[in-house]
Specification:
Layout (H helix, E strand, L loop, with lengths): L6 E6 L4 E8 L6 E2 L11 E2 L2 E3 L6 E3 H11 L2 E3 L2 H6 L3 E4 L2 E4 H16 L8 E8 L4 H13 L7 E5 H9 L10 E7 L4 E9 L5 E10 L7 H8 L4 H4 L2 H30 L6 E5 L9 H7 L4 E5 L2 H14 L3 H5 E3 L7 E9 L2 E8 L9 E7 L5 E8 L6 E6 L12 E10 L2 E10 L10 E7 L2
Helix pairs in contact: 3-4, 5-10, 8-9
Length: about 450
């Protein structure tokens, strides 16, 4: 294995099926890891199992086999266990969810090492269904526990993965509106993507919609539908025929129900392309729905959009292109504004950027030192990316010692607690021996709406 070859790795982490894609820095497209030698089923089941009375853990397809055939203890929904700070007990021993998640991820990265060693990973991007404070906390603990340097690890949500996957397809498929439908067998989520060409750069927006009442056949229904009649064992071919007809009618009703949902959603949305993801669309059961979707649209079906989108995101971070300058994604995890301030440098007023719109709020941590020009306050400038009016934030430095202009050096740290709330920490550094520091500090949080 050539250690000089570098890769971006996209890691799709959820409670059911983990997918890992890898993107060699000099290639044009990412590839996706196949586990268990089954080329028809990409991904790794997000499962662990523990051998009875021994400290031996298996994961993925091997865990499925041991659980099914040997009755070993199953550990499922590992991501939710970790996020909920929950634990489980097996054979009288308690295991924390976060530790089990780290174990699963370490084992899955070992599987990847057949193609990409840890030392070859330039950037590792975790993509998850949603990013909130609890999930970011989980991912931070994961990042601290795996053999990849923290500065090489990025986080993103599925919606952002969709955006980065889409913009690396043919432009005609996404330059106006497109939709991704992901059905996990229980719930269908739609990522509706549109581009606002009235702004510079063009802003990509993804709205998420959830449909809880869309019924799909379970795998057993599709298996029974596709099984040939067993004439020798049946003895009642008429009964079997009636059962199959009833089964076909039930599946056909589900197809029509899905078509009605799609029609209601799309009738006022002029999308050019639709993508179908998830196990809910397996089995070629929704032919009427697909025929409807194909009326004036391009339709695609796949499994690994999120991990591939994460790869494209990581690659664009490493090697930005003209595409990244022309288009920007503004999801709910992104800052919707630029934040900066004016500073005096060499007797000139200069604008200094503190946080850039389009960046993940949880990635931002900026520290600057500057001389207070005058007064007892610091003024920050908020510039919305949607063209709305510029506003200013004034941070009062109550109690700061009175000194002549430009003889108070301040240290300011900017971070965010959410996409619209900035945390500001300021310290008085004084002015050398002339004006020693007062050791005063000011902390404030400001909601930017």
């Amino acid at each position: 294995m050539d250690q000089a070859t570098r890769y971006v790795v996209g890691y799709d982490l959820n409670d059911t099926l983990t997918q890992i894609s890898y993107f060699e820095l000099n290639n044009d497209a990412p590839e996706t890891l196949v586990s268990g030698g089954d080329n028809e089923r990409l991904g790794i089941p997000t499962l662990l199992c523990k051998r009875r009375k021994v400290s031996q853990w298996s994961f993925g397809t091997e865990a499925v086999r041991l659980i099914r055939n040997e009755g070993e203890s199953e550990v499922s929904k590992i991501l939710s266990l970790a996020k909920g700070e929950k634990s489980i007990t097996i054979d009288g021993e308690t295991f924390e969810g976060i530790d089990l998640l780290i174990l699963f991820i370490r084992k899955s990265l070992n599987l990847l090492s057949v193609y990409v060693s840890v030392d070859q990973i330039e950037t590792l991007v975790f993509t998850v269904p949603t990013l909130d404070k609890a999930m970011i906390g989980v991912l931070e603990r994961v990042a601290a526990a795996i053999p990849v340097e923290r500065e090489r690890i990025l986080f993103q949500s599925y919606s952002e993965s969709v955006y980065y996957y889409m913009i690396h397809q043919q432009q005609e498929l996404w330059e106006t509106e497109s939709a991704v439908f992901d059905h996990d067998g229980r719930t269908m989520t739609c990522y509706y993507m549109r581009m606002n060409h009235r702004t510079t750069p063009v802003v990509g927006i993804i709205d998420e919609f959830t449909f809880d009442d869309v019924k799909v056949p379970d795998p057993d229904m599709l298996t029974d539908r596709d099984d040939p009649d067993d004439e020798e064992s049946s003895g009642d071919k008429g009964k079997i025929r009636d059962e199959k007809e009833a089964l076909e009618a039930a599946i056909d009703e589900m197809d029509e129900g899905l078509q009605d949902v799609m029609h209601g959603f799309l009738m006022s949305r002029p999308i050019r392309s639709a993508y179908l993801l998830g196990n809910g669309f397996d089995g070629e059961w929704c032919k009427k729905t697909i025929r409807y979707l194909c009326m004036g649209r391009r339709v695609f079906q796949g499994k690994n959009m999120y991990s591939k989108g994460a790869c494209h995101y990581g690659m664009d971070k490493l090697k930005p292109t003209e595409l990244n300058e022309k288009y920007i994604f503004l999801g709910k995890d992104k800052l919707q504004f630029n934040l900066g301030m004016n500073m005096n440098r060499k007797d000139k007023e200069e604008y200094i950027a503190l946080a850039d719109g389009g960046e993940n709020w949880f990635d931002i941590s900026t520290t600057v030192e500057f001389l207070l020009a005058s007064g007892h306050r610091v003024e920050l400038i908020v510039t919305p990316l949607d063209g709305k009016e510029i506003r200013k934030i004034n941070v009062s430095l109550d109690g700061i010692p009175g000194r002549p202009d430009k003889t108070t050096r301040l240290k300011m740290k900017i971070s965010f607690t959410s996409g619209d709330t900035v945390r500001i920490h300021i310290e008085d550094l004084g002015f050398g021996e002339i004006f020693p520091t007062s050791n005063m500090k000011w902390d404030t949080e400001v909601k930017i709406v």
